Amino acid sequence: MKRNLLALLVMLSSLVVPAQLKLPSIFADKMVLQHGREVTIWGWAAPNAKVDITFMHRNYTTTANTSGEWKIKLFPARPGASGAMLIASGKQKIVISHVLAGEVWVCSGQSNMEFTMSAFHDNYAQEMASAADDNLRFMVVKNTLDSKERNNAELRSSWAMIDSTTIGNCSATAYFFAKKLREKMKIPVGIIISSWGGTPAQAWMDEEGLKGFPDYSQLYEKEIKPLDITQLQAARIKSEKSYLRNRADAGTLFNTMTAINIPELNWDQVRLPGNWEEKGYPELDGIIAYRISFEVAPGDEGKPAVLHLPAIDDIDSTWINGSFLGTHTVWNQLRTYSIPAGVLKAGKNLIAIRVEDTGGGGGLNDDPSHFYIETNGKKIALCGAASMKILLRKNQVTNGVNFSSLQNQPAVLFNAMIAPLLPATIRGVIWYQGESNADKYVEYRTLFPALINNWRKRWASPELPFLFVQLASYNPAIKEPAESNWAGLREAQGYALQLPKTGMAVTIDVGDQVDIHPKRKREVGERLAANAFNIVYGMKNEVPAGPIYKSHTITGNTIVINYDYTGKGLWQKGDKLMGFTIAGENKEFVPANAVIQGNTVVVSAAEISTPVYVRYAWVDAPMDANLYNKEGLPAAPFRTDK
After folding, report:
1. Residue 335, pLDDT score
2. Angle at 364 (CA atoms; ends 358, 366), nearest 5 degrees
3. Which H or E run includes 487?
4. H/E element, 108
5. In angstroms, what CA-CA distances link 429 with 456, 465, 529, 575?
6. Under a CB-based contact definition with an 8 Å cutoff, are residues 169 and 140 in contact?
7. 417: which DSSP letter?
8. Is residue 388's pLDDT more than 90?
9. With 555 labelled, which of 101, 242, 283, 572 sits at a CA distance of 20 to 30 A?
10. Is the pLDDT of residue 8 over 90?
11. Within 13 Å of residue 35, how many CA atoms lie on the same side as its CB?
């Protein structure tokens, strides 16, 4: 029996498979490595095993530690150098083909970085059809999250060369940035895209970086870090199935709510338009009902009409007086519904809207100018009081965590989508984010610089270039006087320019009042590149940005504004300089007359004899602001009444 047991043990030992030689997912065929610097290659092998790399006619050797982890630093390569890389350990070998040395940038943020070229096909059809550049390559990190830092990234797509078949999967902002670098510098460029729509900055910071923000740090430490994400994701799937089972019942219930005269027991009262997150429901996703009453004057009843609604996030089904008007499924488009003759009644009428939101913001966008009924040559405004009832919640909660917003929790995206990239050698970062922090723009003044410093510390690069996009125009233009979260967030983004090796691309002129994802991504990418040429690549003759407020002086009834980055001179796009307002000590701002004098702008207003403060483009969507430098780069919004 002992002899048989010994033989069995010998047989079993012969079946033990040695630890697999493995590389992180970001090392793959067609990858780009940063030229001109030592590059770290790392991975896993059997404990204490020897690991060899052959690349660019050089041989490198190291030994894995007792946990099987290893890393090797490669000699700096010249730009454009290419070849295959062989990694070997014992009898195991990995060959990575078509490796290229060039500039490597990480591209991160939320949806305006995430949106791909295919999303803007109609705008860039020719660009996509003719794309062909083997020296412009990209990879995309999958939307993943974790309660603890990972050492390997899940990918949505591995390295690919840009051509007409691949370009549709590339971030539009990142593509135009990289293309501009390629055109001017004539060297290969690789972009690592790691972004997730609708996410706040705190989700992209690590545990240490959050310590300056106790609310986020404590939430992560107490609620997020202890989570088992695998189990939580399984519970999330279970919750999704439950939601889908009950969805039809919610629709049936809504059908009983479309008539004019039904009791509104236990309905909440809200004011519309405006997303429900701004109305006291910050964690709500699912299906809700709105009821909106309005009056039709005698003589206007029975006539055909048109209902104008703001964009509705995500899906609506709309009724008037029990008559179905239509359904729209595109979350960021205005709604226009025809009202047939005979539907409107003299006196009280009622709009019933069933809204389904699958995640992120929900409800009617805050767009009063597109919220009315047009009938008999008149407009009936719909802004004001409305009734609201939750029919079905999507965001079921387990362990105190909201499934629908799990990706918005502190550190979870850093853990899964940035931490695995940290050993990689990169040139810098481009960043497009801020929409999801606009309601806390004062906090963002310190939160955003803290994020930059956090990444620099983790990449062990104190001046890692960090170029970012200032928020574009969005939401109906607000006339002064008014406060604007988006203007406040733009100002907060500018605080980061106090850090070295940072640059900001101003995009107020290429935004879209009714679409938070403006289609003009070429300008965004190229303005980021303009910053890179000056700040990162030392091309001091390249103007990095448009005019940025420097100082001002008050002379009599005028304010004279001085700017940095005037380039070849200031320039106004149009017949009259727009976007400036001024105020006296009472801060009651009025539109200003503004003229360019040399490299200054002089502003005044007849009703302000003693001006004290000046603002420029200080609204959500300053589409009429038209100050540029002669290089065609727009001036940044500012205010002096801080």
Report:
1. 95
2. 130
3. helix 485-494
4. strand 92-109
5. 10, 6, 11, 38
6. yes
7. I
8. yes
9. 572
10. no
11. 15
* Ramachandran area for residue 224 (φ above 0: left; ψ -120 to 50: alpha; else beta): alpha
Dihedral (Cα; 182, 185, 189, 192), 10-degree rounding: -90
Alpha-carbon distance of 343 to 322, in angstroms, equals 9
Q: What DSSP state is assigned to residue 546?
A: S
CB atoms < 10 A from the CB of 56, how many? Answer: 17
The pLDDT value recorded for residue 515 is 82
| pLDDT single digits (tens) 442-497 | 999 999 999 999 999 999 999 999 999 999 998 765 554 467 899 999 999 999 99
Q: How far is CA 444 from CA 199, 437, 448, 494, 564, in A?
A: 14, 7, 5, 10, 24
Question: Which tokens go with 446?
Answer: 């310190």
Two tokens at 197? 């729509």
Taking the C-alpha atoms of residue 333 and residue 354, their distance in angstroms, rounded to an integer, is 16
Q: What is the pLDDT of residue 367?
A: 85
The hierarchical CATH code for the domain 249-398 is: 2.60.120.260
Query: In whole angstroms, what is the distance from residue 360 CA to residue 339 CA?
Result: 30
Closest CA to 489 of 439, 431, 528: 439
Residues 557 and 604: beta-carbon distance below 8 Å: yes
Query: What is the C-alpha to C-alpha distance for residues 154 and 353, in angstroms, rounded to an integer?
Result: 40
Note the pLDDT tens digit of each residue in 301-342. 999 999 999 989 889 999 999 999 999 988 878 899 999 999
Instruction: Say whether the peptide bond before residue 47 is cis (omega within 30 degrees of 0).
Output: no
Structure tokens at 177: 């940035």
Q: What letter would DSSP give residue 21?
A: P
Instruction: Output the DSSP codes for 125-162.
Output: HHHHHH-EEEEEEEEEE-----SS--SS--EEEEEEEE
Q: What is the Cα–Cα distance from 490 to 228, expressed in whole angstroms? A: 37
Q: Which residues pair with 313 in a beta bridge?
A: 363
Domain boundaries in the chain? 249-398, 548-639
User: What Å distances lie between residue 82 and 96, 102, 105, 495, CA to CA?
Assistant: 11, 10, 18, 40
Strand, helix or coil for residue 604: strand
* Residue of 469, 630, 614 lying closest to 565 (CA atoms): 630
Cα dihedral 158, 426, 207, 151 in deg (nearest 10): 40
Q: How many CB atoms lie within 10 A of CB 442?
A: 11
Residue 276 structure tokens: 């429900």
End-to-end CA separation in angstroms for the chain: 88
The model's confidence at residue 6, banded by pLDDT at 50, 70 and 90, is: very low
Helix and strand tally (H, E) in the chain? 10, 38
